[in-house]
Amino acid sequence: MTDSWFVYVLRCADQSLYTGVTTDPARRLSEHNGLDGSKKGARYTRTRRPVVLVYQESCTDRRSACQREYAIKQLSKSAKEKLILMPN
User: Fold this and answer.
1) Which pTM does this prediction carry?
2) Would you write out the chain's pLDDT as a tens digit for each of its 88 residues?
3) 68 three-state secondary structure
């Protein structure tokens, strides 16, 4: 069991934003871009490639990462853009 969870935001090719949680941001980015040959990336990002990691935040556990993911998803796009610009 891992103790390092991350919430992340991706910018898709169409400039939309996708938020998720993972234990390995680099692996997850590769999956979203289809670089590993599998179809493990989210359905949303499959048609919006390439995607770029624009924000990540470390969390203490999966529960707190999911709670933070939910909070970010509730933000307006302009609020998410401001979050991305803030150093973390």
Assistant:
1) 0.92
2) 556 999 999 999 999 999 999 999 999 999 999 987 878 888 999 999 999 999 999 999 999 999 999 999 999 999 999 999 987 6
3) helix
